[in-house]
Design a protein that fits this description.
Layout (H helix, E strand, L loop, with lengths): L12 H13 L12 E6 L5 H12 L3 E6 L6 E2 L12 E2 H11 L2 E5 L7 H5 L2 H9 L4 E3 L7 H14 L6 E6 L9 H12 L3 E5 L8 H4 L4 E2 L2 H5 L4 E5 L21 H4 L3 E3 L12 H4 L6 H20 L3
Parallel strand pairs: 1-2, 1-5, 3-4, 5-6, 7-8, 7-10, 8-9, 10-11
Helix pairs in contact: 1-6, 1-12, 2-12, 6-7, 6-12
Bound molecules: phosphoric acid mono(formamide)ester.
The site of phosphoric acid mono(formamide)ester (CP) has 9 residues, from helix 2.
Amino acid sequence: MKKYTEIKDISNLSETIKEAILLKMNPYEFETLGKHKTLVMLFFNASLRTRLSTEKAANNLGMQVMVLNVNDAWNIEFEDGTIMNANSSEHIKEAARVISQYADIIAVRAFPTLKDKQRDESEYVLQNFVKYATVPIINMESATAHPLQALADAITISELADKPKPKVVLSWAPHPRALPQAVANSFVEMMQHLDVDLTITHPEGYELNSEITKQTPINYNQEDALKDADFVYVKNWSNYNDYGKILNQDPNWMLTQEKLGNAKFMHCLPVRRNVVVEDVVLDGDNSLVIHQANNRTFAAQVVLKQILENL
Ligand code: CP
């Protein structure tokens, strides 16, 4: 693997999932692969799971890790040719090349503005690191995608599916804050590569980017969509068409135990209890959220391993 900024960077998904499951069984098998190699993790936004699981994954491979909360550093300018007489002190051209001297791999987390759709869809932060860094880049959640989360979710479903083609439902849920579409986008894209029967359910008008959902069935009736589901993945996203807006907070879209039935419950976390999903679901035996969070380590580890093998 040359980089991991999008799911397409995985050349063989089924082999990668198998490799991740093997790493989970024996996490230190390649503990010298990353000796004298450094991962620099850059956070433009908050994180709990991504930060800790990626650092743990790198440590399991013997790598050194440096973490920078970018808001503690100089403001980075991303526009080309700009007159830097305002708030930005350093241009991405210098920043990316400087960091590349300290790093063998750079991982970046940079959320969308949810105000400027065109700018967000250009993935200007991530793509400028790809353009100007001289080492491989890993996406730790960008404006439109969260491929490490999606890989962890694919590992989770592969481990726990008890039938050849499980029914997987991605259900929108209400949320008081405007959230990105990134997790939902990457989950849909990842499921399209797995042998699953995927349905998306959300209120009318909450369609994700049709270039991502493609022919995936959309059902505006949540109860109907959830019938016979094996896995229910719940996630809020703000409106994609009326970009970044919250147009619906209908509590009837919250996932309840009654709606879940016997299906397994999935969420990337963090999650707002009794807004997105009721307590009894999260605390119940069918909740996979802790399992998913554990698999974040092995998703990151298999990606780091494949990149290190290609350096
Ligand atoms: N799921 C996820 O990416 O969690 P964090 O935002 O805490 O990293």
